[in-house]
Amino acid sequence: MKFGVTSDLASRVKGWAEPARDQAPFATAVALTRTAGDGKRAVEAALPTVIDRPTPYTMGGFRLWPATKMKLRAEVDFRDSFGKGSHARDYLAPQVFGGERKLKAFERSIQRVGLLPAGMSAVPGAAAKMDAYGNMSRGQIVQIMSYLRAFGEQGYRANITDRRKAAINAGVKGKRGMAYFVGRPGGGRLPLGIWLREEFGQLGSSLKPVVMFVKAPTYRKRLDVPGISERVVKERFPVHLTTSMQQAMRSARMPTTKSRLV
User: Fold this and answer.
1) In a domain, 256, yes or no
2) Are residues 202 and 228 in the same domain?
3) Is residue 35 situated within a structural domain?
4) Are the C-beta atoms of 86 and 131 separated by less than 8 Å?
5) Chain centroid offset of residue 85 CA
6) Phi, psi at 193, each rounded to 5°
7) Would you give per-residue pLDDT tens digits along the chain (262 residues)?
8) What's the CA gap between 58 and 72, in Å, rounded?
9) Contact 69, 85 (CB under 8 A)
């Protein structure tokens, strides 16, 4: 989303009074930056209409680059990742441009160790624990990655040991035994994914789908950033330019005249 002045500003203000000409680049930069801010907020306001319960991370997925007197262009683009998280571009770009979304960090991890087949993505199953935003809980994701030893070099210490896995499988201190595995249980009749098997001793066992592997979805364009930008520019830039020019003129140093006695 780019808001800029592409024509020669000097030719536009040639007929203006000298103080106005001096203030025009600064006022234009301010107006462009304010317009871009309006555009960013308009896009953020539209996010909940295309994404169910967007997280604060998603709502902060856009960043504003202000205009300057030397660069009369303000931009709103995807924000880089926070820490080790996914880049906003990876999951927001398909909403804007359409196409496939990139794999999430969890998906990349289980694909790296050969668990998630190419061309597939991971979606929560019926036994997944969900957070308030409708996403799989971070705690359960970490538990699964640790059990399946899907953490890479930087997080390898989080991968459980053989001894710890055996204890979890058997159940300790009155807890039921449990195990995560990847496959198609039921003799291949059930869908491919990550399953949880819980043992209840003499009472038997249960099998629960936690993460299902599905064909990577292709998204259509749903977040009309170009249309929002065009509307905001038409409605807000003239207003901001008038206001910023008035403010700049009030703060400008007006030329003084000197008189001499004859």
Assistant:
1) no
2) no
3) yes
4) no
5) 9
6) 175, -165
7) 665 654 445 555 555 545 555 778 888 999 999 999 999 999 999 999 988 889 888 898 899 999 998 998 999 998 876 555 567 888 888 888 899 888 888 999 999 999 999 999 999 999 999 999 989 999 999 999 999 998 876 555 778 888 888 888 877 665 678 899 999 999 999 999 999 998 876 677 889 999 999 999 888 899 999 899 999 999 999 899 889 888 887 776 555 444 443 3
8) 28
9) no
Q: Amino acid identity, residue 242?
A: T
Do residue 234 and residue 196 come from a single domain?
no
**Whether residue 212 sits in one domain with residue 136:** yes
On whether residue 260 sits in a domain, the answer given is no
- Count of the separate structural domains present in the chain: 2
Answer whether 132's CB lies under 8 Å from 55's CB: no
- Phi/psi for 172 (5° steps) reads -130, 150
Residue 140 and residue 231 in one domain: no
Distance CA 216, CA 223 (A): 20
- Residue 110, exposed/middle/buried by CB under 10 A (0-12, 13-18, 19+)? buried
| CA–CA distance, 128 with 148 (Å, rounded to integer) | 16
Could you tell me if 19 and 252 are in contact, meaning their C-beta atoms sit under 8 angstroms apart?
A: yes
Q: Is this structure's pTM higher than 0.85?
A: no
Number of Cβ within a 10 Å radius of residue 1: 21
Please report whether residue 71 resides in a domain: yes
Asked whether 178 and 168 are in contact (CB, 8 A), the reply is yes
61 and 190 assigned to the same domain: no
